[in-house]
Amino acid sequence: MAADVHNVFLNLPYHKDYERLFVAYIAGIAALGLTPRTALEVTSGARRLDRIWGLLLECRSSVHDLSYLRHDLPAPRTPRFNMPFELGLACGLAQQTKGHEWFVFERQSYRVQKSLSDINGTDPFIHHGTVKGVLAELNNAFLNARRQPSLAESFWIYTAVRKEAPNLLRQAGSTTVFAPRVFKWLAFRARELAARIQA
Amino acid sequence: MPKRVIIKGPPPTTEAVAKALGLTKKEADEGRKWADQAARRYLQSVLGSKSERARRGPAAPSEGSRSTSAPASKHGSA
């Protein structure tokens, strides 16, 4: 499938501490008139890596949040390699096709230069771990030639979908927003709301 | 200076987004219904704040305009 300029692959840690930021990424991408896509859509069937690669191929750009640098608590305690690994896939895709754009988001300035020095020379977008930081940096990374959303509009969409999240969790029987159905419902609601308030 | 992607062209239709995300018709209809209601709340909040400002009268002069005119009394003339 050809890459769609309106599809953005979103790569971030599925961790309780990132729920707010996850919703912020969804809202901010939707506010830009784009559709967030995540590996959460990859459930079963074919080999997971093949499915993630297939999903990347559908996306013209990708956002990689590399701010999670901790060890998980459940034993055995491990760091998570999925985010940098998927960034590597996106870099490979960009090298191969020259049509894919990838962006690195971080919480702290200059940290990624240490944690992943291979991408030195690439300016990361620093969100400071805040919702408004994520929304503002997404607006810096993407420019919608037809209509750029204001930070206030993006934040309004974030607030609305955030308030809706508990209802969706109940409907899905889930305790986390990092569930495939909850993600899809949030992403679609955010896109629909963005289309309406920016019409 | 970080790079930037410029998005051109019309956004995909609501049907295309629902299809890309793998939603059923029922799920998409529920999403659209929610968005209609949320958009109404948004308009009310925007229009409400505009009408509130209109009701309160013209905005106070800004710092910049104040500096070029006569100093305003902070205490009024009561």
What does this structure look like?
- The complex is a heterodimer of chains A (199) and B (78).
- By secondary structure, chain A is an alpha/beta fold.
- In chain A, 47% of the residues lie in helices and 15% in strands.
- A 5-stranded parallel β-sheet of chain A has the order 2-1-3-4-5, with helices on both faces.
- In chain A, strand 4 (101-106), helix 4 and strand 5 (125-126) form a beta-alpha-beta unit.
- Chain B has 78 residues and is mainly alpha-helical.
- Chain B has helices at residues 14-21, 25-56, 63-67, and one strand spanning 5-7.
- Chain B starts with a strand and ends in an 11-residue tail after the last helix.
- Residues 62-78 of chain B have low confidence and may be disordered.
- Chains A and B meet through strand 1, strand 6, helix 6 and helix 7 of A and strand 1, helix 1 and helix 2 of B.
- Strand 6 (142-144) of chain A pairs parallel with strand 1 of chain B, so a sheet runs across the interface.
Topology:
The complex is a heterodimer of chains A (199) and B (78).
Chain A: E1 4-11, H1 19-31, E2 35-38, H2 48-57, E3 59-65, H3 82-97, E4 101-106, H4 112-115, E5 125-126, H5 131-141, E6 142-144, H6 151-172, H7 180-197
Parallel strand pairs in A: 1-2, 1-3, 3-4, 4-5
Helix pairs in contact in A: 1-5, 1-6, 1-7, 2-3, 6-7
Chain B: E1 5-7, H1 14-21, H2 25-56, H3 63-67
